[in-house]
Design goal:
The protein is mainly beta. 10% of the residues lie in helices and 51% in strands. It has a 6-stranded antiparallel beta sheet with strand order 1-2-3-4-5-6, covered by helices on one side. It is globular, with a radius of gyration of 14 Å.
């Protein structure tokens, strides 16, 4: 688990690594129905925020360069996505 705090010591979030099998049926279904279902799963985190808000961040890979973070709410809805381009080092 990793907890994040503001510079004033106020809790911002806590993330915990989970496996695909540990996800609820709603999250699994949301991912499987998304346009990213054919991508490789690289990392999954459950993130808790203030006001008892929980999101699931699934890191996927399309190829060696393009990685994408998908954020799902507890109902399995894809609420946002971010792209990460990684340069190959060699």
């Amino acid at each position: 688990m990793l907890a994040e705090y503001s510079i004033k010591g106020i809790w911002k979030s806590t993330s915990k690594e989970v496996s695909f099998n540990q996800l609820t049926a709603a999250i699994k279904d949301g991912f499987k129905k998304s346009k990213y279902a054919d991508r490789t799963l690289l990392d999954i985190k459950m993130i808790s925020y203030p006001a008892n808000v929980i999101q699931y961040r699934i890191k996927t890979g399309k190829n060696d360069v393009e990685k994408k973070y998908l954020f799902f709410n507890e109902d399995g809805q894809l609420i946002r996505e971010t792209i990460t381009l990684c340069a190959a080092l060699g």
